[in-house]
Amino acid sequence: MELILLLRTLLAGCKEISFRVSQGALAGVLGSTLSENVQGETQKKLDVISNQILKDILSESGYVKAISSEEEDDVVACNPNGNYLVSFDPLDGSSNTDINSLIGTIFSITHAPQWMDADDPSAFLQPGTQIVAAGYVLYGPSAMLALSTGRGTHLYTLDKTHGGFLLTQKDVQVPKQTSEFAINASNQRHWEDPVQNYIGDLIAGEDGPRGKDFNMRWVAAMVGDIHRVLSRGGIFMYPFDKRNPEMPGKLRLLYEANPMAFLMEQAGGLASTGHGRILEVMPTEIHQRVPVILGSKEEVETCLSYYKA
Ligand SMILES: O=P(O)(O)OC[C@H]1O[C@](O)(COP(=O)(O)O)[C@@H](O)[C@@H]1O
Ligand SMILES: [Mg+2]
Ligand SMILES: [Mg+2]
């Protein structure tokens, strides 16, 4: 029951963000701030606004012991008696805020170990297999929620008259096969050989070893690309690239890769780093990055076969 109340609280925050996003230039929420986050990224105004909305509503809820956020250097202690930890990306797809394109909020919830102090970051270092609930809200033409509490992945649509997220698709099943891939091709020269070969064969299409044509999409917002994959199948990749071996990918494990992997697996898809299941990665720090390959089961298996070759 408490988890449901926590989810309701979190979604009330997302409704507020949805409203602020929809106001756009009218409310002066577009553009950048002068500050940088711990990732070294210039924060957008909506990054800061969304982060503050979620931080306030979760810390006042009483259910949450601590939170970790893309926009917070360290974990934020909340209620010492709280039973849950929440990790979130308050505004995903920041580079899309000023072009009125798809953006969203991503979150994952785990139990708070009773032994921990509320400001102890090590409590967040739990593998994704420990997630009790995860989801995203996509702020698109309609605001949509994808949610799983470990019993399938379900889609809800925000009814702006009624004010609630209403169930619009139960038990999403990602098609096992696909002809659609998503990757930022401008990073090609930095990819490892397995990815070079795999993408090369997709692009070769019916003239190549795959014997069929593939189409490419890139929303530049993980929440948008994953929603498309959940809706009609596909493979989404942000793989390891050689530019900075210390940073094995762009996407963050706790509040991007893990929640999306949880949703994808609950919908019958697969989620891998290229070398193992994302949900089994043992985190070492809260802003850790990982390579991400997820989507339609058979297509991800085919991609992983290039790593074995
Ligand atoms: O700029 P690129 O290489 O296209 O990267 C896009 C990726 O970066 C992200 O925008 C990173 O997330 P944030 O916007 O929350 O920092 C992902 O949503 C998206 O998949
Ligand atoms: Mg993000
Ligand atoms: Mg973000």
Automatic annotation (TrEMBL):
Keyword Lyase attributed:
no
Q: Which residues bind Mg(2+) 2?
A: D89, D92, E256
Pathway(s) = Carbohydrate biosynthesis; Calvin cycle
Gene Ontology MF terms = fructose 1,6-bisphosphate 1-phosphatase activity; magnesium ion binding
Task: State its cofactor.
Answer: Mg(2+)
The keyword Magnesium is assigned to this record: yes
Give a Pfam family name.
FBPase
Highest rank taxon of the organism: Bacteria
Sorted keywords for this record are: Carbohydrate metabolism, Cytoplasm, Hydrolase, Magnesium, Metal-binding
Quote the record's binding site residues for substrate.
D92, G93, S94, S95, N184, K250
UniProt feature coiled coil, ranges: none
User: Where would you find this protein in the cell?
Assistant: Cytoplasm
What's in the GO CC field?
Answer: cytosol
Signal peptide span per the entry? Answer: none
Name a single GO biological process: fructose metabolic process
Q: Which reaction does it catalyse?
A: beta-D-fructose 1,6-bisphosphate + H2O = beta-D-fructose 6-phosphate + phosphate
Q: Write down how the cofactor binds this protein.
A: Binds 2 magnesium ions per subunit.
| Similarity comment: family membership | Belongs to the FBPase class 1 family.
Cited NCBIfam families: PRK09293.1-3 (NF006779), PRK09293.1-4 (NF006780)
- The entry's protein name is Fructose-1,6-bisphosphatase class 1
Organism this protein belongs to = Paraglaciecola polaris LMG 21857
What lineage, starting at the top, does this entry show?
Bacteria, Pseudomonadati, Pseudomonadota, Gammaproteobacteria, Alteromonadales
Tell me the name of the encoding gene: fbp
